[in-house]
Write a structure and sequence with these properties.
five-stranded antiparallel sheet; 7 helices
Length: about 220
């Protein structure tokens, strides 16, 4: 690599490391010297992998050194592992000179070990007993909101809007509301009647019918 290219990459590496903090290692490999035992010419936060300037290449670097004229594609956001067990999210960008050969590598290795552990803990905390559970159950702020939500649930149970409901559909909806304790809410009966377009007499009749169906 040309000196000016190395200096540009070094400046860029410093900026990336400063942006993402001490868990972000940025490494510059110079492959133009044909010395596979010592390719690292600049490194930020080398404590992540335990490497320093003058150290040798990784497996990916060796692949690039094997035949630098072969087409190689950048490898982005893949996982690597250090000798001491850290899990890194890595990206490897191949740098080519004017002759088209790969003469350098710009690599970013971000330590996500603690993030993976945190994700595991969060998954445990947010897991629910029922597999494939429905939408999160809302917590109403008043009995009015609670009744509105129960009425909406009764419509979802039936699976069709009120305007298309048959008598049997409304019996099913009223039965759901009764089982859910909706009629314990003050003045709920009149609100349900208005919503389903039925009289108080019909409401009680539907409640009795739903109970009879439930009892078999």
């Amino acid at each position: 690599m040309r000196t000016q290219d190395i200096e540009f990459c070094r400046s860029l590496a410093h900026g990336i490391a400063a942006q993402f903090g001490p868990g972000c290692e940025v490494v510059i490999h110079d492959l133009s010297a044909d010395n596979p035992s010592s390719t690292i010419v600049a490194i930020e936060n080398g404590h992540v992998s335990g490497r320093a300037v003058g150290d040798g290449p990784s497996h990916v670097v060796l692949e690039a050194l094997h035949d630098r004229r072969n087409p190689v594609e950048d490898r982005l956001a893949y996982l690597t592992k250090t000798e001491d067990g850290k899990i890194l999210k890595s990206s490897t960008i191949f740098l080519r000179g004017e002759d088209g050969e790969v003469d350098g590598i710009f690599a970013i290795n971000y330590d996500i070990t603690m993030l993976l552990a945190a994700r595991h803990e969060l998954e445990s905390l947010t897991a629910v007993a029922a597999q494939g559970a429905a939408d999160p159950e809302p917590i109403p702020q008043s009995v009015t909101e609670l009744l509105d939500e129960l009425i909406e649930q009764s419509v979802r149970v039936v699976g069709k809007p009120v305007a298309l409901m048959t008598k049997e559909d409304k019996v099913k909806a009223i039965g759901f509301l009764n089982d859910s304790g909706a009629f314990l809410v003050t003045k709920s009966g009149q609100k349900v009647c208005n919503y389903f377009g039925i009289s108080k007499y019909t409401l009680y009749s539907y409640m009795d019918e739903a109970k009879a169906q439930a009892q078999g």
